[in-house]
Design a protein that fits this description.
2 copies of one chain form a homodimer.
Chain A lengths: L15 E5 L6 H10 L4 E3 L3 E2 L14 E2 L2 H9 L7 E3 L2 E4 L2 H9 L3 E5 L2 H10 L4 E6 L3 H11 L4 H15 L7 E4 L5 H16 L10
Parallel strand pairs in A: 1-7, 1-8, 2-7, 3-4, 8-9
Antiparallel strand pairs in A: 3-6, 5-6
Amino acid sequence: MTSDPDFDFHHPTPLLIVISGPSGAGKDTVVQRMKERGLPFHFVVTATTRPKRANEVNGKDYFFVSKEKFARMINENELFEYALVYGDYKGPPKAQVREALASGQDVVMRLDVQGAETVQKLVPEALLIFITAENGQELERRLRERKTETPAELALRIATARKELKRVEAFDYVVINSDDQIDQTVDMVKAIIDAEHCRVKPRKVTL
Amino acid sequence: MTSDPDFDFHHPTPLLIVISGPSGAGKDTVVQRMKERGLPFHFVVTATTRPKRANEVNGKDYFFVSKEKFARMINENELFEYALVYGDYKGPPKAQVREALASGQDVVMRLDVQGAETVQKLVPEALLIFITAENGQELERRLRERKTETPAELALRIATARKELKRVEAFDYVVINSDDQIDQTVDMVKAIIDAEHCRVKPRKVTL
C-alpha cells in the first residue's frame, strides 16, 4: 500500500474555538478553569486602550495599547470586533489568532453572544460553543443570587440573558454548566474539541 | 424568565452510531472494548440463518432465525442490509434499533465500510465513525502480521483495505487506532458521542 499523504491522519487542523453563552451561565469560569488545567490552547488576550492597573500584566490580562495603535488596528481591519466600554476601547486582535493557528495551536476566545455571532460571520469555520444553565429559570436564579446589582440593573441583565438564550440556534454545540459542576463542563468542552479534531472535514480557518 | 421547553437542554436525542473502517484497523476490538467497559449503549445483534453453536447465546452473539423468518424480514424491508456468507444469511434488523432509540438509548452498529455506506443512504442522520491505522503502510503491516491467510488471500485483503481506506470521505469522523492504544481509541469514540449529544442541531433518526 503506498503512503498516500491524503490518508495520513496525524496532523489535525487547529481550531478557532469561541466560548460564549448568556450572562450568568458561567462562561468566564469555564475559560478560567481551562487555563488552570493547563490545556494546550492559546487563549486570546484582548487589546485595550485602558491604562494598565498595578496588578495587571501586559500580554496576559490585556494587551495595553495606545489610542493611536487601536485606531490603526480598526483601520487595518485587524480586530474581530471592538467595543467602547466606560470610555475605553477593547477588542480581540486577529494577528494573535492567525499566529497561534499557524503554529498549530487551537485558539480559545471568550465572547458574549453578540461577539460570537460577529466572529461567526467573519469566520464561518469557527467552532461556537454555547455555555448555559439547564434552563431559563436556573439562569435567572443565578443572576438574582449575585446580589451585586440594583433591581433595575438586574431586570436589564435578566432581559438580556433571556434574549441571549434564544441565540443558541446560531451555535454548533451547547454545554450545560450545572451549578458546582464546572469540571464536568470543562470535560465536555474538551470532548467537543477532541471530537472536532477527528472530523473528516475539518474546520480550516482562514484569516 | 419563563420555562420555555425549547431551551431545556436536558434530554439529548439518542444516536445511531456506526463503527466501521478498513479490514485490519481494529473495529471489532474497539466495539468489544466498548462492551467490556459497560458503556450505556445498545449494541446491535445481527440476525442470522446460521445454526447456533454450542457456546453461543441467542440474542447475544446473534439472533438465530429460520430461513422463512429471514425471508420475511427481507420482504418487509426490516433489515438495514444483508449478505450471504458461506451459505448463511446475516443482517442487522431495524426493529431492534427502532426500539432501542425509542427507549432513549444510543445504538452502536459495527459494519464493514460498504455496510456503513448503505446505512448512511438509508439513515442520513446516522453518525459514522471510521476506525483506521495511522496510514496505509501500518494497515498493511497489521494485515501481514495476522499470518492466518495464504499469500493470495492476504493480497485480496490488502487490496480491499486499500479501497476501503479511500472511503473515509463518506464518514463523519476518523479515529486513529494506534497499535496497543485501544483504550485511547475508545476514549476518543466516547468523546465523539458525548460531543454529538451537545450538538445544537441533533441527528434525529427516523426509521
